[in-house]
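note to self — DONT lose this again. spent like an hour looking for the file last time. sequence + predicted structure for the chain T wanted, 697 res
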Amino acid sequence: MPIEQQFFNRDISWLSFNHRVLEEAKDTSLPLFERLKFLAIYSNNLDEFYKVRVAEYRNATLHPESYPDIPHAKVTLEKINTIVGRHWIEYSKIFKGQILPLMEENGITLHLDGYSNKTEHMQFIDNFFNTELIPYCQPVLLNKGTKSFMRDNRLYLAVKLYRKHKNRDKKNKKRRARYALIKVPTNDHPRFIKLPQVDKQHHYMFLDDALRYGLPELFPGYDVVGSWGVKITRNADLGIEDEFWGDLVEKIRKNLALRKTGTPAGLYHDRAIPSDVLNFLMDSFDIKPIELVETGSYQNLHDFFSFPNPFSPKLEWQAPKPIKPFELEEAGSMFEAIKRKERVLHYPYHSFDYVIQFLREAATDEKVDEIKVTQYRVASNSEVVGALIFAAHNKKKVTVFVEVKARFDEENNLYFARQMEKAGIKIIYSIPGLKVHAKMALAIRRANGERKRSFAYLSTGNFNEKTARLYADHGFFTCNDAYLDDMEGLFKYLEDQSTKPKLNKLLITQINLRKQIMKRINREIELSKNGKQGYILLKMNGIQNKNLISKLYEASQAGVKIDLIVRGICCLVPNQPYSENIRVLRLVDSFLEHARIWVFGNNNNTEMFLSSADWLNRNINRRIETAFPIEQPELKAEILTMLEMQLADNVKARNIDEYLNNVRIESNSKPLKAQQAFYQYLLQLDTIVREDSKKQK
């Protein structure tokens, strides 16, 4: 990308992030199965990218008049496919050149292409195919000129065949190739088949290869020339043309099925597939050259998440045990702990159990008469939802805003919304034209119609106990009335957008967030122009909005020092005259950095906000997001310590340069891994609190 452009393309930038994920699979300091996990994450990320982003580019190439916001779609799509093709070559080298040999060293053999010279294995495969696989095999011969169908993200083998000659006289007659497709039955069998143990090694093979073994039996009367793994990803956009009229929930429910049958976003294929086979597939499935994605021998490698470890927990990364802060344990009650002082919990370093405890306490506290919560993504067996249903059974008035447009979680959210409605919970569904991405909960006490001492929770991450063990986020507990007033006003706004709430603490998109951000950047600019220290530190998953980036460029040119910690999409171009005071850092480690934190120096009177919002166009323009100030000095110091560790990380952090390269940080300092260091810091803090308590007693 020419660096004369002041903004990186958001999707080319995202590919840079996913390449950084792939790099973790090369890290020899990580256990084998942690490296395998990063191969799975890379593949999973890419599937979603093609379903959503590439599908949109495809549509823009076909109907440019309908996508004025996506200029040069065809050029960008070609660039995306070129980059992804290059990454897949690197992926294969890592897998075959590093991961497979490391498996062998550790007593695990994964046989590729079904090859094994062990008699025990061949007998097992023969028996497995004939007794376990055949009932699920449905081979389909493809006919020229007839359109066929592949299900979204399902794994298939494309097979090339020749009809067998019936007599020797026709042996030399040129035969016409036939082509077939067969679905790999991963819904009925695990992707990795365990073979008999031989020579103290644990042996496995891909289910695909067990299927390949039996292809001659599935196609009697044909000679099988070869087979190659293929799959199609389909457009994940639900295609709701009008959100403002009719029943939005019913439209979403009906359109969920379209995901399985939507237009193709990409045909993934083995790079070794012969051109005639590929061309026949393109014709049969209406695939255009620009939709081809060249990969390695195997598709759906997100299945590495489930690769069996016969030595578990050996060869795996062991996440540190979540800390249960002494003060919360000693208080016994979340409400009592929050009364004493405001709290910030840092997940996954701290246990997410306290959020469940907060909701369960609200459900049983006789003084609490109302609970309000937003729901964006919840766990599949959600304790959060369970606590809310428990509250409803306890005669509490419970209101839950459910965002049914949360992509890939629509079905889960609709299911839990129905369960909560059955329990008597009031459900507010999506707002047409907007997604509600704010993460907040209220436990409200009232007497004689007036609100008494009540409690609030705001977070950078979802009410999801599963992802809270994997994502690095922050949750804030308070009983400060100023926060509660704003949150009650926001909940009223979610029900009726005709009146906007007056805000004292919160920054909310669609109301005051953009204006307040600009105001604070301008203040840092003025400080710098007046010879004082202007400083901004922003941590987010993505930054794209051109108006906000341009304001950061203006601040940089005024002398404001700016540190960005951006995990994913970064459209800001560093190392240019207009961005010379901006440093962009990317941190990828075993926990997914998911938090959004904004720090403004304010002439040594630091302002800090935690937020649900990235600076992507969707967050700023099309979502309801919250940003909330952290004002207690000890809480600010705690979070600033974490940010300083991340800025000093010289192991997992990378600088993003003007070409979107992830540049390793060269340092003579002692190696520092921020995630590891912050966990130790929190342990030490808790130990100090515990010891001080003992002394006071």
